[in-house]
Amino acid sequence: MLNSSPEQTAVTGGAHKPLRRALNQTELFFRRIFSDNHLVRTYPKSRAAQRVRENSHIGMRDPGFCIEDWRLVVTAVDGKQLQLSIDEIRALPKTEIVFDFKCVEGWDQIQHWAGVRMVDFIRHFGLEQSAEKKYMGLETPDGKCYVGIDRESALHPQTILAYEMNDRPLTDGHGAPLRLIIPVKYGIKNLKRIGTMNFSDGRPRDYWAEQGYDYYSGL
Ligand SMILES: Nc1nc2c(c(=O)[nH]1)N[C@H]1C(S)=C(S)[C@@H](COP(=O)(O)O)O[C@H]1N2
Ligand SMILES: [Mo]
Asked: Which of 36, 42, 51, 158 is 20 to 30 A distant from 166 in Cα terms?
């Protein structure tokens, strides 16, 4: 696989020998982890925390925010825009996951989330061409919190757009009505209250990277 991907060639300018040296630590990690068969460990529901930790609310303090009026605004690469209600998203196949959520501040907790797998979402809305871009950018409705996610992680089979926690709709504090759950990343990449989604080959802006954290923040 290391020798066959066109992206590898782009990184190294074509030569195979210097390939490994040209990759930095993050990229090596990233390539090892995102072969499709690498899944994050999951747990039985009985292990999931009932009192789920809540951490940091950047981009979630807009007093004008109205959950009834919320739409997920998706801008496709052809310029087309989708404005999706939470009901449209809930109508898609639901996937649940119980995994160990890890915050860079040093805590972790086994948590139970549910929503639509990102790959299912992309397929359902015909966004495959957009998803070929190297990055997905997500922002809160007020634009105050934002993350950039590399394509491989966004499309990882355990990445979900979550609207439930412990079988109940997300609470405000956990990112209602829709948040990202991306088990291959630290908590900072799990954007709460997603407002917009777009796609690009350049790295989207990332709030936590601006604070000095690793852009990829993979596990
Ligand atoms: N919009 C938004 N999303 C966010 C954050 C935030 O401050 N604002 N904090 C991040 C961090 S640091 C963590 S650890 C998780 C915490 O999610 P929780 O509050 O559901 O535990 O959300 C992430 N997503
Ligand atoms: Mo965090």
From this structure: 36
User: Could you tell me the residue range of the domain that residue 77 belongs to?
Assistant: 12-210
Residue 145 alpha carbon, nearest atom of ligand 1: 1
pTM of the predicted structure, to 2 decimals: 0.86
Nearest to 175 by CA among 149, 158, 195: 195
Q: In angstroms, what is the span from residue 38 Cα to ligand 1's centroid?
A: 25
Q: Which ligand is nearest to the CA of 207?
A: 1
Low-confidence ranges of the chain (pLDDT < 70): 1-37
Q: Which of 39, 59, 51, 21 is nearest to 147 (CA)?
A: 59
Question: What is the CATH number for 107?
Answer: 3.90.420.10
**Which of ligand 1's atoms lies nearest the C-alpha of 186?**
14
The DSSP output letter for 205 is P
Helix (H, G, I), strand (E, B) or coil at 107: coil
